Amino acid sequence: MSPDAAGRWEVVIGLEVHCELRTETKLFCGCRNAFGEEPNTNVCPVCLGLPGSLPVLNRQSVEYAMRIGEALHCDIRPSIFHRKNYFYPDMPKDYQVSQYDEPINSDGWLELPNGKRIGVTRAHMEEDTGKSTHMGGGGRIGDATHSLVDYNRAGVPLVEIVSEPEIGSAEEARAYVSELRAILVATGASDGKMEEGSLRVDANVSVRPRGSTALGTRCEIKNMNSLRSLGRAVEYETGRQIDLLESGDRVVQETRHWNEDEGRTSSMRSKEEADDYRYFPEPDLVPLAPDDQWRKAVRDSLAPMPSDRRRALASAAHTEPAAVALLVEQDLDGLVLAAIGAGADPRIALNRAANEVAADPDGAARLSAESFARVVTLEATGKLTATQSKQVLAAMLAGESDDPEAIAEDRGFEAMDTSALQAVVDQVIEANPGPWQRFLDGDPKVSGLFIGQVMKKTQGQADGKAVTRILQERRDG
Amino acid sequence: MKTAVDIAEAVRTGERTAAEVVEEHLGEIERREPEIHAFNLVLADQARQAAADVDRRVAAGESVGRLAGVPLALKDNLCTRGLPTTCSSKILDGWCPPYDATVVERLRVAGAVFVGKTNLDEFAMGSSTENSAFGPTLNPLDTSRVPGGSSGGSAAAVAAGFSPLALGSDTGGSIRQPAAFCGVVGVKPTYGAVSRYGLIAFASSLDQIGPFSATVADSALLLEVIAGHDPLDSTSIPQPAPSLMEAVEAGVDGLRIGLIRELLEGIDPDVAARVREAADVLSAAGAKVEEVSVAATIYGLSAYYLIAPAEASSNLSRYDGVRYGLRADASDITAMYEQTRAAGFGPEVKRRIMLGTYALSAGYYDAYYGQAQRVRTLITRDFDAAYEHFDALLSPTAPTTAFAFGAKTENPLAMYLSDVCTIPSNLAGHPAMSVPFGTGDDGMPVGVQVLAPALGETVMFRVAGALEAAATAATVMA
Ligand SMILES: [Zn+2]
């Protein structure tokens, strides 16, 4: 695809995210909801779909679904379950109990760190299928000699979150899933593990002439197991569709399989072959209508969402929400907010948290906001240089002590007073007449040489900014 | 033969042993079952063991349940732990459920003695038991005739004296119509009154388990034991079982009873005559009886034959050869599905799966399934309107008495018409029961159907009790 071609087209992406809920038990039976156990051990007549068995809805799964709905600003409505009928060996009843035209959550939105809102069409409940392993072929059912089915996953509660087709790039798709994952984890409903399949993403990708408002023909991409593969798959598929359209072909509506090793998508089935799912209301379940009291309890129990946390930190630190997204993601916003509350300089607190603290998650867990505020203040007031402050913080994170003043004293750290520093700077100027002349001639690059020399002479105790200031005074004065 | 009420009393007081009772019934089974074929499986050893257990408890002075020592036959679509449960279909070949249905569990606790699993139309789809993969059941009153269906085996077991009690399931009349054909009492309770957990589904929104017995009081007793909320069935009504025994003899003085006009049309004249006589009898007993129109009932059959097959097409998908039952040896998964289901299901089951699949197809859903659900709402509405003026309603149970084998097998529509009077109650979720009331011109029994509003079992048993008393008196007089 040429850059010109890329400029003529724009991609439109809608995402369907299946989220396994972290309930104790499955959606319709008392079997444990657990990952990675001996196959077919967490099963019973209900989740095996044995004749005569009947489903009973798990209250905790409804609670989690409502939390997700609240967190995504959805309308939470009375809902019903439908049966989605199709034959597949890992589906014990040969129908999936899901929600269809009356889902529990609809019409919500999610805010990306950059402030853009992506519409959430719906977030409905359904049961997971079992897991098939196709043996003796290429891993597909068609060329297998036999298949093994593990029904431990059958009946595990899922919430499927469907976005509006409002995502405009592979990068934005990754940002959406990343943000959604953080929200799902914050609600307590999910562990957010894409690698273990507890979060599964399908992407509906189409392209259209840039500026057009109509949607192009879409393809649904499946089998992306990480944020990275989501990005790669969407990039690939976008290019594939643009190439087709540029060469005068058309895109065929179909489901495509992402192959991580080959780095490309391939056709699974076209729309013509698509199943007629014969949806109809599940007669074995009754309508679900959470009362106001329950809804209020769910609302009140929700932890703050990532976007709220970004806003809170950004406002306290006088910066933009996008600038603190990583800190929130790393769960360091609480520490920084508390340090600012204790009087720490916001800019230095953000910096030290984003670099030194973030680099040591174990140490971060030990670090008290109060001690952190103190080391930041030592730096902000010039009592410690930046270099010294980082060393003190590293010692605190390593668990040496939570008293920054004591560590600084132990190390013999004292910010040099200005007159002592001036003397050292003068010595260095004297010893380097050639570079000094170049500095006087306006070559800014040589200032690094002077700072380095001063640092060497003072064993790193000098403040680099103070050295620069003295150099400028000598030049200008 | 003694009634269940008498047997339970005699066993409890030590007047008779459960062992004697069960031997008496097993003897009857041995004598006539080879001819009648009421059972897919006779549980002689298990029954003797269960009876011995009851006797041991009685001897030890332990408390025994309300059905202690009473022989009981289970329709073979009710799951019994470790015992074959076939639905009279080849597709469940070799399958033994690892669990008991809720009703089975409640009956075990009550001390009932299971004597066998009874024959049925495959997956309860039929009105004559001719659709069983294991051959038909014969009507014990005239073996040239069908016992009705789909619970024909259960009705025949009670009529032949194999057991005083039996359980059936009723989706469109599958308890009431065979009860009428075999001259016994059959009850379809309010939808949700009896747990469906462990009943192998035909049409989930219509299926309901219910009693067969020789007397109205025995059905009342059995229903009291099996009804009541079950947390394993989401559609189970959160209420305890109703008290019905007193209702049987409470009389009908002051009750308002409506004779459904639409369900007297197209009925054999002898059957219609018995129903009118039943109305007269109730009137004489102090009830106020009038004709009433429940107009939408005439659309019941059409709606039923969309809704029931639609649900069945989905419920029966799981018989795919993957996990249990029959599996055809085929080269790939699709061929395995096709060959398994082609070999495992009989023609009527296939017909209904196809009907139901079609009714739910994209583009047809609204015209068929959607429309049928609207009719269902209309029927409920018309019933509700009638119940503003009446406490119970009356109709024939079936348009005819028991017909001859083969009379309707070539014409599915004629067979379907056999359920025209019973289907409306299933669509509305209301209780209804069949009470024997005289005979037709052919000497075969006629069943009168008593219908009541949702959870109206008490008034229904009052009317049934009064009809039974009158019918018994008439027999004595004759
Ligand atoms: Zn289970």
TrEMBL record, chain B:
Active site: 75, 150, 174
InterPro entries: Amidase, Amidase_CS, Amidase_dom, AS_sf, GatA
Keywords assigned: ATP-binding, Ligase, Nucleotide-binding, Protein biosynthesis, Transferase
Gene3D superfamilies assigned: Amidase signature (AS) domain
Domain Amidase: 20-457
Enzyme Commission (EC) number: 6.3.5.7
Enzymatic reactions: L-glutamyl-tRNA(Gln) + L-glutamine + ATP + H2O = L-glutaminyl-tRNA(Gln) + L-glutamate + ADP + phosphate + H(+)
Top-level EC class: ligase
Pfam family, one: Amidase
Gene Ontology terms: cellular component: glutamyl-tRNA(Gln) amidotransferase complex
A single GO BP: translation
Source organism, top-level taxon: Bacteria
Molecular-function GO terms, alphabetical: ATP binding; glutaminyl-tRNA synthase (glutamine-hydrolyzing) activity; transferase activity
Oligomeric form and interacting partners: Heterotrimer of A, B and C subunits.
Classification via NCBIfam families: gatA
Stated role: Allows the formation of correctly charged Gln-tRNA(Gln) through the transamidation of misacylated Glu-tRNA(Gln) in organisms which lack glutaminyl-tRNA synthetase. The reaction takes place in the presence of glutamine and ATP through an activated gamma-phospho-Glu-tRNA(Gln).
Sequence similarity: Belongs to the amidase family. GatA subfamily.
Protein name: Glutamyl-tRNA(Gln) amidotransferase subunit A
Protein encoded by which gene: gatA
